[in-house]
Design goal:
Layout lengths: L17 E9 L10 E6 L8 E7 L5 E6 L4 E8 L2 E5 L3 E2 L5 E8 L27 H26 L5 E10 L6 E11 L13 H7 L2 E5 L2 E4 L4 H5 L1 H6 E6 L8 E8 L12 E8 L5 E8 L12 E8 L5 E12 L12 E10 L11 E8 L10 E4 L5 E3 L5 E7 L2 E8 L1 H4 L6 E7 L4 E7 L5 H7 L7 E10 L10 E6 H6 L4 E5 L5 E8 L3 E7 L5 E7 L5 E8 L3
Parallel strand pairs: 1-8, 20-26, 27-33
Antiparallel strand pairs: 1-4, 2-3, 2-5, 5-6, 5-7, 9-10, 9-19, 11-12, 13-14, 14-15, 15-16, 16-17, 17-18, 18-19, 20-23, 21-22, 21-24, 24-25, 27-30, 28-29, 28-31, 31-32
Amino acid sequence: MRRLIAGAVLLPAVATGQTVRGSVTHRGSSAPALGAIVTLERVSRVGEPGLEVHSVLVDERGTFSLRATPGTTLAIVVRRIGLRPFRSDTMTLAPGETRRLEIALDAINPGVENAFTLERVTVSGATPCRTANDQSVRIAELWDNAQTALLATVISTRDSLVRRRLIRYERSRDPATLAIQSENVCAFDAMGGTTGGFFRSLPGDSLSKVGYWQRIGTGIARFHGPDENAILSPTFLADHCFTVVAPAPGGEDLVGLGFEPAEHRRQGDAPPEIRGTIWLDRLTSELRTLEFTWTTLPAGIPELALGGHVRYSRLSWGPWFVQDWWLRMPEGLPSDRTASSRFGILEEGGLVQAADAALLGAKPATISGTIRDAASRPLAEAAISIAGTSLRTVSDAEGRFTIDSVPPGLQVVVADHPRYDALGVRAAEENLLLDAGSERALILDAPSDAQIPERLCGAPLEAGHGTLRLIVLEAVTLVPVPGMRVTLADRKAKVSGSGFFTQAETDSRGAALFCSAPAERLLEVTATTTDKRATTFELALPASGMKVRVVHLVRR
């Protein structure tokens, strides 16, 4: 069977002129074997396993290119889930030589004894655990497929193959119901890269040494979960035993590779450990998720729904990446002298949105709630919608609304209402990170009179100042009049040229905004058309408040 090793020693490609190029295809169809990993191994002795020097994913055409050191004996190894591995004959490249390989991979037939043609050792030779013979082959097969996808994830991140929108969040959850009590969300665009990884953990050897959580102060602990590099590390295999896990009802399309601490990791002085399951697709053998929980917790922590979850996904042309992840940890720890009778759950996690990686089969979410005005009264007839979609509804007399079939991920819920449209603001707007199949309840609060000027102008009003929003409409058609020059000034400025004076121009909605003008004194407003006709009137602004004036323009 395949040797259970965490083979990921990824060194930079050597910068010389010796190159191995080629293509990897499916035998029979000649279609590119998208997702195949091509590894250059340095061979010390013919017939013995090589040391991995560099690995790459084939591109959209199934081609690859690897550089080699002259005079080195090497071999090319190709792995892809669902296809039989390939190892080339050993070769030595002369300075400046380019060697080309055309590699055709065969499909693996389920149940065939010799499906794995690379080196074969027993599972007990790679872990400290005894494994029943009837499970050994199956464990090796599952690990081989999981390892291939994890290594592809490492390569995709290192080589920046996935352009992603990263969404990070922090949630506080109710410990009994797991209902979301509060949420902070941050989104940004990024490539992969060795320093731009999305879900990163301590290295495998560090986790083995210090454990998967550490108490770092009174009432504070830092929790960890393993990323793909940590799982691929030799220490992870040395610290854990593996078994085949049957899925729960409803998950029959999956098969699990379970892991738990080895005996030497369960002794009293051992660092904190984890146990969990790597889930693969039963039909395609592709990696789906990693689930785990901590086997021990800090003293005084009750039984809570704690642990971690990582979902993996693949772009259509091969690169793998972390689709989403979360860690659920206790929110607060008992101090050395006191104990808390109630704990919360802090969830930190993230979601990747990649253009070529829709989460197939993800169940839509449902949003329901109430919208209220600034006095906490129900706001009826508000138009509630999901930005960028056609999903929308209208609140009823009690301000209630429901929108279903909402795609999971980061969504923006917006509410519009005529009362607030006239003021130039939305009744409400809120970012929500929706889990697949979730039902989110929320309360939308419209802004108060004091909040509206700040929303429009981006800063609080100065003391003794007010805000004016002027709207110019055609008197007959009520069509907005854009491009009018509007002047706001006090009498002193008009007579002497000194004092308050400012100008603005109406926008496409016929609106001009004056964010900070002297309050509680007469100001003159002059709106001038392009043909030099003017409309003039006076008004006074409320202190720390806002006034809206609609002007109906009569055409002569």
